[in-house]
Each structure stands twice: as C-alpha cells, then as structure tokens.
Design the sequence.
C-alpha cells in the first residue's frame, strides 16, 4: 500500500496489558495498525497472539492501557458491538455453525446488514422476503469469489478442514468489514490450499481495501503477504516492522531459535 | 356410520387432540434447545409458575384478559431475570453446565411459585366448556369433547405461528447460530443476550398457554409441572431441535397412546396409556436417536 494511505491509523494499542488472575497474557503492548494494510502478529506458542486478537474483538477487556479504534478510545466493548463497528474475524479452530449449510453460514454474516423488523422477519413477509433475496445475492458473490460453489448446500460439518476455513472466511467477508481478524487462516492446510488462501487474503485487501490483522505460523506466508509484522514473546512486543527488517532482528531470531546458554 | 369405525375414529381423534397439547409442552423445550443446545429441565416448573400466577391473579377478581396480560408480563420479566442472572455468566460454558443450572432453576421456580402464591389446588375455568360436541355427535355419532377441539385449535395456531417465526429468515438463522456456537454468533454481530431473552420469554409464553389449558383439565397444582415428562417421548420421537418434530411427535404419541389403551389394553391388562409413549420413545432411541426430524449428529474423528 502507498505511504499516504498508511498515515490513517485504524487501530492503536497503547500500553495494553491483560492478566487472568496471576497470569499476565499481554504486558504493555503498543502498536498501530494503519488502514488498508496487512499486519501479521507472530510469535512462539503462548506469546499472547490470540489474546491480542480477542482484545481487538472485544472478547477480553484490557486490564490496563487503551485501545483506539477509528479515532475513538473504546471502553467495555462486547464482541457483537465490535461486529457492529466493522470488525469481523475467523477462529483458530474454526467456529462455524456446523449444523447449517454453507449458504446459511455465510448468510449469518449478513445479520447486521439486515434491517427489516422482527415481526416482518418472523412472518417472512413482503419487504423481509425481498431483503432476504438481496442478501442472498451478496452471499452468492462471496461464494463465487472463494470458489466454493460446489459445496453451497453442503452441511459444513461434513466439509474437509481446508474448505471449512474458507467458508469461515466467507462468513467474515459477508459482513463487509473494515477490519478482518484472521486467527491462523492456513493452519492444517496443504501447500495448494495455503496458496489459495493467500490469494484470497491479498485480493480482499487489494480490491476491497480491508485492513487485515492475521496470526500465522508459516513464516514464508507471513513474509510474503504482510506489509508489517509484529512479534510477541511471553506477552511482550519484541519487534515490529517490515517483514525483511523483522526477519533479521536478532531478538526475533533468538525467540524462535533459542539463545545459547 | 358403522359403530366400530365410529368408535375407532373417536379414539383416534381424541388421541390426536390430546397430542396437540403434548406438542405445546414439547415446543417449550424445543425453543430453548434450538437457541442454546440445552435441555431446559425447568420447563415443567415454568408451566407451574405461569399457571399459578395466572390463576391467583384471576382469583383476585381481575378481568380474564387482563390476568392473561399480567401473567404474560410476569413470564417475560422472569425470562429477562433468568438471562441476566443465570445465562449471562455461563456464556461459552459447556452445555452440561447450563443443563445443571436449569435443574437448579427448576427447584427454585417450584419453590418460588408455591412460596409467593400457595400450594393449594386451584380450580381454573378458562371459559371453554368440557362438553361433547353436539353437532358432531348427532350427525356422525362420534363423541368428542368441545374442550379438546378448542384447546387443539389454540395450540395449533400457536405452534404454527412459532414454527414460522423461528424457522424462517434472519431470526431462525440467528437462533440456530447461537445454538451452534456462542462465540462465533457474537463475532458476526448476533446479540446473544437479546436472543436468549426472547427465546426464554417465548418459552414462558408457551408455558402460560400450556398451564392454562392443562390447568382447567387437572386443576392448577404442583403436579401440573409433571406434564413436562409427557413431553419427553414427544421430543425423542420428533427430535429435540425440530419444531415440526414437536408437532408430529405430539400427534403420534397422543394417538398411539389412546389407540393402544383401547385396543391393546384389554389384551395385555390395561393401564398401557401411562407407559406406551415411553416404550415408543425407547424404540426410537434404538433405531433413530436423532428423532424423525432432528439434525443428524456429525462427529469428525
């Protein structure tokens, strides 16, 4: 992305700490996410990556520090409010609605876009029905984009893991988010599936301008697709910068390979 | 009409009509199961609570419809309190924890209902006479109680309305989403708390209607909470998460109960009515554990 766009900060962490009882998951973490960028959060297991995502998403409230989103300091946010404000996400272990088919799963992502009132919805009547059809068209576009036409009516519990991850991405995209949080989008995928997923993520970023924050363990993927990398270790930020700079940072190398004693 | 045939139809229809009333009780379970994956052990206590509240308000000399409105309001407030106090702290906990909580709720509600009101037997007359339907009796010689017909009509309308309301479009999808995965539902912007409050309030409303109808039949008293047991075989037959299943299951159980009692009863000694439903449920558990219309359970290994 060009430098001029990078000046607009969509999300800022300022000295954010969070602890669960005696365990501190994040310690004074500060970083900024510029609009329209792809930002990767990396780090060894237990570094606090998913916790960071959960804080952005409103699942956890920080014990200390402030979070600024779209220029406003947030307080006591819940996940569905985060969704209202344009944050969509996927989960590490895939949290799809397993009993529903692909179309219905992605349709739930349109939930906030639907406006007709409760009674009309209930009676599935007039405007509500037209609205349903309009949203269904939007969902079909996403299905085409993600190349999952063939499993449109399949119950997602039956799909292989790689496809489930794709459907989950589709559900997040259906909300037309400003910011997309992806928790290990390539976990458990083979090379071909990973390449597809990279392509989808980059397309979303480039065509829709969606800001993307992702957690990933596959370093080649991270180095390929991110504009910026944040490295966490034991809940602290140890490095941040362009992929190349982070790759050569001695502290990062130590964190991953260990330090000789 | 042939006497034997007329008698058979009489038995069958009486069975089907009481089956609709089972459906109504089962529906209360299905609604909550669909929205949280939890078998609500307290549904019977909710029926008792609703019926007792209604009958006591009525006894104070309040107008019938006003009493209905007040009882309904009480059930809605109760649902909101349950959501705040019991469900909200248990978000994203295993289903078994929620189930345990409903067992606690069951005893709490039973005690609360009888503590606030009393534990006497209260007669209830909701204005539908329990007399034979004369027109039908004269024209076809089939004896069916007008009360059964009316209560079946009321239940039928309610069941159809709820089936439609909770199965189509956005609300139905939101419900299923919440039941499937709390976390994911919140992440797509479904207000979990609101959905739960709506569902429990609706289950409270269903409990009130069930309590009123069964209350006239049995009198409003503690044992009315036991009709929840009658809903169990209906649920096993129809599937815990299917509204259509609750309807069809209720009809099958009601009809087979009565028919078995009349035709099989004399052969194997009578009193079948009280257990035949459970026997059918057991056969279903062996052959088709998800019920007639339940979602098939998919387990990845």
Sequence:
């Amino acid at each position: 992305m060009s430098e001029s766009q990078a000046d607009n900060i969509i999300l800022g962490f300022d000295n954010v700490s969070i602890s669960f009882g005696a365990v501190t998951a994040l310690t004074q973490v500060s970083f900024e996410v510029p609009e329209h960028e792809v930002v990767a959060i990396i780090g060894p297991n237990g570094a606090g990556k998913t916790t960071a995502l959960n804080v952005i998403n409103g699942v956890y409230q920080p014990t200390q520090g402030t979070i600024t989103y779209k220029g406003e300091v947030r307080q006591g946010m819940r996940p569905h409010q985060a969704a209202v404000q344009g944050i969509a996400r996927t989960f590490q272990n895939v949290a799809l609605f397993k009993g529903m088919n692909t179309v219905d799963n992605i349709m739930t992502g349109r939930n906030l876009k639907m406006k007709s009132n409760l009674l009309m919805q209930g009676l599935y009547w007039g405007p509500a029905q037209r609205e349903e059809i309009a949203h269904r068209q939007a969902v079909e576009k996403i299905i085409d984009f993600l190349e999952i036409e063939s499993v449109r009516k399949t119950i997602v519990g039956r799909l292989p893991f790689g496809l489930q991850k794709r459907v989950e991405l589709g559900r997040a995209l259906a909300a037309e988010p400003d910011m997309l949080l992806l928790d290990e989008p390539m976990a458990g995928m083979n090379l071909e599936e990973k390449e597809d997923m990279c392509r989808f993520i980059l397309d979303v970023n480039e065509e829709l301008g969606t800001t993307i924050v992702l957690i990933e363990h596959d370093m080649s993927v991270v180095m390929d697709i991110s504009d910026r990398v944040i490295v966490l270790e034991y809940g602290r930020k140890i490095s941040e910068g362009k992929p190349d700079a982070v790759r050569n940072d001695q502290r990062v190398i130590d964190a991953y390979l260990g330090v000789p004693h | 009409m042939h006497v034997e045939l007329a008698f058979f139809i009489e038995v069958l229809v009486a069975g089907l009509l009481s089956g609709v009333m089972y459906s109504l009780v089962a529906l209360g379970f299905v609604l909550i199961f669909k929205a949280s994956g939890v078998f609500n052990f307290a549904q019977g206590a909710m029926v008792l609570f609703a019926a007792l509240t209604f009958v006591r308000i009525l006894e104070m000399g309040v107008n019938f419809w006003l009493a209905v409105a007040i009882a309904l309001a009480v059930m809605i407030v109760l649902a909101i309190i349950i959501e705040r106090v019991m469900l909200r702290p248990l978000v994203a906990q295993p289903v078994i924890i929620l189930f345990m909580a409903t067992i606690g709720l069951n005893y709490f509600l039973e005690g609360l209902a009888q503590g606030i009101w009393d534990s006497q037997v209260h007669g209830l007359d909701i204005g539908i006479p329990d007399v034979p339907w004369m027109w039908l009796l004269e024209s076809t010689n089939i004896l069916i109680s007008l009360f059964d017909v009316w209560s079946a009509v009321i239940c039928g309308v309610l069941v159809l309305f709820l089936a439609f309301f909770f199965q189509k479009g956005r609300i139905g999808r939101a419900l299923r989403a919440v039941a499937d995965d709390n976390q994911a539902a919140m992440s797509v912007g479904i207000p979990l708390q609101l959905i739960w409050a709506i569902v429990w309030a609706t289950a409270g409303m269903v409990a009130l209607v069930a309590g009123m109808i069964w209350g006239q039949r049995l009198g409003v008293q503690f044992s009315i909470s036991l009709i929840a047991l009658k809903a169990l075989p209906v649920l096993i037959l129809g599937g815990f998460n299917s509204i259509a299943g609750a309807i069809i299951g209720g009809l099958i159980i009601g009809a087979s109960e009565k028919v078995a009692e009349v035709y099989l009863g004399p052969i194997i000694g009578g009193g079948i009515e009280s257990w035949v439903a459970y026997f059918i449920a057991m056969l279903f558990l062996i052959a088709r554990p998800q019920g007639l219309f339940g979602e098939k359970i998919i387990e990845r290994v």
